[in-house]
Design a protein that fits this description.
It contains 19 helices and 14 strands. By secondary structure, the chain is mainly alpha-helical. This is Starch-binding associating with outer membrane.
Length: about 575
Amino acid sequence: MKNIIKILVLSSLLTGCDDLFEPAIENNLGFEYMYENAGYAEGVLSNAYTRIPSASYSFNDVATDDAVSNDAANSYRKMVAGAWQSDNDPTERWRNCRAAIQYLNLFLANADKVHWADDELAAKMYNDRLKGEAYGLRAMYMYYLLQAHGGWTADGKLLGVPIVTEPEEASTDFNYSRATFEDCMKAFYADASKALELLPTDYGDRTSESEIPSKYLNEGANLTQYNRVFGLKFRGRISGRIVEAIRSQAALLAASPAFAAGNTTTWQNAADYAANVLDRINGVAGMDADGGTWYKNKEIESLGSGECPPEILWRGTKSSSNTLEKDNYPPSIYGKGRINPTQNLVDAFPMLDGTPISASGISYDASNPYANRDPRLAAYILYNGTKAGVNNKVITTAADGTTNDALNKEEGYSTRTGYYMRKLLRQDINLDPTVNSTQEHYQARIRYTEIYLNYAEAANEAFGPTGKGSHAYSAYDVIKAIRSRAGITGGDLYLESIKDNKDKMRELIRNERRLELCFEGFRFWDLRRWKANWNTTAMGVSITGDATKAYSPIEVDTRTYKDYMYYGPIPYSEILKFNALEQNQGW
C-alpha cells in the first residue's frame, strides 16, 4: 500500500468538483492537466483507498456481549447506554463511503482520456487495471453502505442507498432517493464483475510469457510491459482475489435473516462465492496451521511491501508501533486496559474436548473455571493469574487484588469485567517508560478464516451440515478443520454428535465465528444480520479469596437495543437536507 498512499493534494482537484469546497478554489488545474498527468489522475483513485473503514480497529465489540470499555468517553459505550440516535451514530459510514464513490465515479468518467504511458499497449493495460481497481473499490463501498445503512422503511420496503455512478457537479440534483436493497446488490455484482474482468487475480512479476493473460498476449504484450503494469510492486492494491472475497462478504450479508426477504441472493450464492475464494488455496487443505495467531507470528518481520502470509488475504500497511499495547495492556505493565472481555465471551469457549461448558456431564469445574479449556481462551483473553508482557508478569484481576490490574481498582485503567484483551497484542513489547519498545503490526483487512466461516454458515443453510453442493467440502469439514487447528482434542465428539443437525450446527458455526474473529469488529454486524438477541447483559466476574477462590458473577453493562436498531439509520443531517431520502423504520 505504500505506493498508493502517496496521495496528491486534492484541495485543487478539478473544476468539476467546485461543489466539494466552499468557497470554490480558484486556479484549479482542470481536467486537461489530469489527462496529461497520470500521477495526478491516479491521485483521484488513491483518495478512495484512504477512506477504507478498516484503517484501524473500531473495537465495536464493546457494543456487544463480547466486551466492554473502561473508557467513559468511548462512543460505543455511550451508544449502548442509550445515546444511539440518527444524529449520533458511531457506526455511520454514509458520508465517508459516498465521498469515496464520488472520487471513483470521477476517475471512471475520465480514465479513458488519461495519457497513462507513451507505450500504447502499456497505457491500455494501465487503464484497464486502474479502472478495475475503481470498480472493485466501488463495489466494496456499496457493501459497507448496505451493511451500515440498509434497512426496512415504515411502509415495508427494504432499501439500500442511492445508486450514483456518474460524477456529481455543482449543477447536480443531489436529492436522490434510496434504491432498493435488491437494486443495490445488482449494482454491487455488476461492479464486482467488471473489476474481475480487468484485474489480475494477484499482482506479481511473471517469468514466462505463457503466464501473460491471452487478451494481452494476443495484442503483443511482453514480460517487461506486463510486469510494468501488473507486477509485484502493486501488491496491496485491490486485486481479483480481494474482489472475490468482498463478493463473499456481501452475499453473506444479503442472504442473512435480516435482509433475505428483500433480495434474491441465496445461501447457495453465498456458499458458491466463498468457495470461489477457498478453492484457490485448495479448499480446507489450504487452511493455515498458524492462522489463529496471525497477529503475532514471527513472519510479520519479514513481510515485504503488500506481501501477505498464508492466513491473510488483504492487509493494511505494516508499521512498527505500540499503540495497541498502550491502549490495552493491563495497567501493571503500563497499559490503559481499554477493552475488557466479558464473562459471556469467556463462557463461549468450550472445554478442551470441544464440549460447551453448559453441556451436562462434562468436566467443567466452576471453582477452577479456566482449567481444561479451549486453548484459544488463554491465547485471546487475559484472566486472573495469567502472565503477560515481555517479562511474563502475573496479572491479578481478582477483586481483592493489590495492583491496578484488579477489578475496578482505578477508573479508566482497571478491568470492569475481571478480564483483559490479549488477542492482537504483541507480548514482546516493553512499555516501561525507560524502554518504550515497539514491534511490527499490521491490520488484517480480510482473513481466510473469515471466508471459511462464511462458507460454513452459508453451506450449512444451503446444503445441510455435511452437504457439499458442487464443492469438495462441507460446513462440517470446515468447522472440524478450524477446531482441530485451535487444539480441540479427543476427536471432537461434540461436533460428531451434532453433524447431522442443521440447527445445532448453525449454533456451533456462529459460536466458532464469535471465537475466531473476536475483537476484530465482526460480532456487532453479525448479531444484526442474524437478528439475534443482542440485549444480553454484559457480565463479568468478581474473584476473591486466596487458596480457595470464590468466583461470583457480576453485571457490568446492560444493552437496551430496540428491534429497529438491527438496521442503522440514515444520518439525520442527510434526511434534513434531502427530502427524497426515506429513513429506516424507528429512527
